[in-house]
User: Which sequence fits this backbone?
C-alpha cells in the first residue's frame, strides 16, 4: 500500500505538477510572510535542496517568483528574473488568487508575460491563496518541440 500511496503523492505534489525535478537549482524571489509554506517545502523536497534566496549570484534552473499587485511592475520583475535563469530555464510565477490581498488581473499577467518574451505553459492552483503559472523562455519552448 505504501508504494501506491507514494506514487499517488508524487502525482499530486504541486512541485511535481509544476515540473520541478531532483537536483535543480531554484531561486526564490519575492518571499514574504504570506507565501505558501507547503508549496515551498514541496519544491525543496522535490529538488532535494533548499531554495536559493534573492542574493544568490549564480544561474538557476528555475525561478520561483512570488508577485503581488503592490510589488511594482510585473514585466520588470519577469525580465529581472530572466537574468538569473540558465538557458532553457523556467519561471514559476505565483500570484494571489481572486479576492486575496495583492491579486493581479489575468490580463495584466498575460500582457507582462508576452512583453517579457515568455510563454505560459501551465497554470495551477497551488494552495488556498496562490495561483501558479509556469513560464518558459522561447528557447525552452523550442527545445520541447
Assistant:
Amino acid at each position: 500500500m505504501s508504494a501506491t500511496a507514494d506514487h499517488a503523492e508524487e502525482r499530486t505534489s504541486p512541485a511535481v505538477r509544476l515540473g520541478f525535478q531532483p537536483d535543480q537549482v531554484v531561486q526564490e524571489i519575492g518571499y514574504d510572510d504570506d507565501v505558501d509554506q507547503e508549496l515551498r517545502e514541496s519544491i525543496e523536497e522535490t529538488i532535494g535542496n533548499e531554495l536559493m534566496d534573492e542574493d544568490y549570484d549564480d544561474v538557476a534552473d528555475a525561478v520561483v517568483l512570488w508577485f503581488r499587485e503592490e510589488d511594482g511592475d510585473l514585466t520588470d520583475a519577469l525580465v529581472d528574473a530572466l537574468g538569473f535563469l540558465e538557458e532553457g530555464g523556467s519561471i514559476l510565477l505565483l500570484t494571489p488568487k481572486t479576492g486575496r490581498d495583492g491579486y493581479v488581473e489575468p490580463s495584466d499577467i498575460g500582457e507582462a508575460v508576452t512583453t517579457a518574451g515568455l510563454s505560459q505553459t501551465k497554470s495551477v492552483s497551488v494552495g488556498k491563496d496562490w495561483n501558479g503559472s509556469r513560464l518558459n523562455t522561447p528557447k525552452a519552448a523550442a527545445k520541447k518541440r
